[in-house]
Design goal:
- This protein has about 150 residues and is mainly alpha-helical.
- It has a domain of about 90 residues: Tetratricopeptide repeat domain (Serine Threonine Protein Phosphatase 5, Tetratricopeptide repeat, Alpha Horseshoe), CATH 1.25.40.
- The protein contains 7 helices and no strands.
- Helix 5 packs parallel to helix 7 and helix 6 packs antiparallel against helix 7.
């Protein structure tokens, strides 16, 4: 029904892409971290970005690489400030590094933006319990005469 120049449009597009592939060869473009980072910075803030950084951070938390996890969560929040889970994960990473005041600061920001976020309250209680228990041990150790 269609001849060469007047082929069905979908078949014509396919033949052009096959022709381009044949000329170019089976070469795949390499992933470039700098171009990926530049693309993210141009698109931010966006509710669709940051999930890959969050996944890396969660994995690093499970492997006790808290510094790397913190950097991943901060990047995820910078790219997508609309996701409360990213803030919660950052607070958790700070808590695991025993940086309780910073973790509580992140949770305060989380509470301001999402007041009904239940998991924030649970983590806040755990941080306060741990922090207060640590203060009690330090206070008891000061009065015991130990060096």
């Amino acid at each position: 029904m269609y001849t060469d120049a007047r082929e069905e449009p979908s078949r014509r597009a396919f033949s052009f892409s096959v022709l381009a592939l044949h000329k170019r060869g089976l070469r795949q473009e390499r992933w470039d971290a700098a171009s990926s980072r530049a693309r993210e910075e141009l698109l931010r803030p966006c509710p669709y970005l940051g999930f890959d950084h969050d996944r890396i951070g969660v994995h690093c938390l499970s492997r006790e690489a808290y510094g790397i996890a913190e950097r991943s969560f901060r990047r995820a929040i910078w790219l997508n400030p609309y996701k409360p889970g990213f803030h919660l994960h950052l607070a958790h990473a700070l808590f695991r590094q025993k940086r309780h005041e910073e973790a509580l600061g992140v949770l305060d920001e989380l509470r301001e933006k999402w007041p009904d976020f239940v998991r924030e309250r649970e983590l806040r209680e755990a941080i306060l319990q741990t922090w207060n228990a640590g203060k009690g041990e330090r206070d008891a150790g000061e009065g015991s005469g130990r060096p």
